Amino acid sequence: MPPHADKQRKRPKQDRAKETRTRILEVSAQLFGARGIGNTSTNRIAAEAGMSIGTLYRYFTDRDEIVKELTDGLFLQVEDRYSRLLTVAADLTPRDAVADVIRIAVEILVANGPLVRALVADLQFYGSGIPEFEPRLRMIIKLYLIHLLGPTKNVDIDIMAFIVLNAGFATALRSVEMEDEGLDRDVVIEHTADMIGAWIATVAEPEPA
């Protein structure tokens, strides 16, 4: 039998497996957003996805693994967008670069608002994704700051990157609820960027001779 025939048989199986996995994640995200994570069992997910619980367990060992993959997916989107931002951030003012950092996270989190609310409510967002992804996101911010500030003796770049990332990400997390609280999301982003950008610009000023 020609080798390519065996590959052709495997590809549909691989495609179906990918589709099934994606289906489980999509249904889980919808149910978590609507019912909360604690109120959603793997049996409910399997039923809503139109498959047996045995099929679901071939892809995920338990609900926690599904939660982790969904959380990781959000952070991977942010990481990808931050990496692309790094290539153009050098041409932006510190204030505009910070605004873009916050806006990127806001766009992704708001687009997944029901899921993010469920993750935050169950503290899964803090316990699952941030410890793994924060160092990677912080490194991207750090590279931008190094490019902007150059060699400096008076600033701890690691601490600065930590503050910029966490202040921006805190704003992004809260943005999911801002409109319900009567706040203008764009205005909050702009003011936060003003404050952080002014701080970075001050630090970036040349030291007096």
Describe the structure.
- The chain has 209 residues and is mainly alpha-helical.
- It has helices at 3-35, 42-49, 53-57, 63-89, 94-111, 113-121, 124-149, 157-178, 185-204.
- The protein has 2 domains: 1-61, Arc Repressor Mutant, subunit A, CATH 1.10.10.60; 67-209, Tetracycline Repressor, domain 2, CATH 1.10.357.
- It has 9 helices and no strands.
- Helix 4 runs antiparallel to helix 5 and helix 5 packs antiparallel against helix 9 (185-204).
- The mean pLDDT is 84.
List keywords for this structure.
209 residues, mainly alpha, Arc Repressor Mutant, subunit A, Tetracycline Repressor, domain 2, 9 helices, 80% helix
CATH architecture of the largest domain: Orthogonal Bundle
How much is the radius of gyration in Å? Answer: 21 Å
Average of pLDDT: 84
State the domain count: 2
In DSSP terms, counting alpha (H) and pi (I) runs of 4 or more, how many helices? 9
Task: State the helicity in percent bands.
Answer: over 70%
Main β sheet profile: none
Strand proportion? under 5%
Q: What separation lies between the terminal Cα atoms?
A: 78 Å
The dominant shape is elongated
- The helix/strand series, from N terminus to C terminus, equals HHHHHHHHH
CATH-defined fold name of the largest domain: Tetracycline Repressor, domain 2
Beta strand count: 0
Q: Could you state the CATH homologous superfamily of the largest domain? A: Tetracycline Repressor, domain 2
Structural class: mainly alpha
Model regions low in confidence, pLDDT < 50 over at least 5 residues: none
CATH class of the largest domain: Mainly Alpha
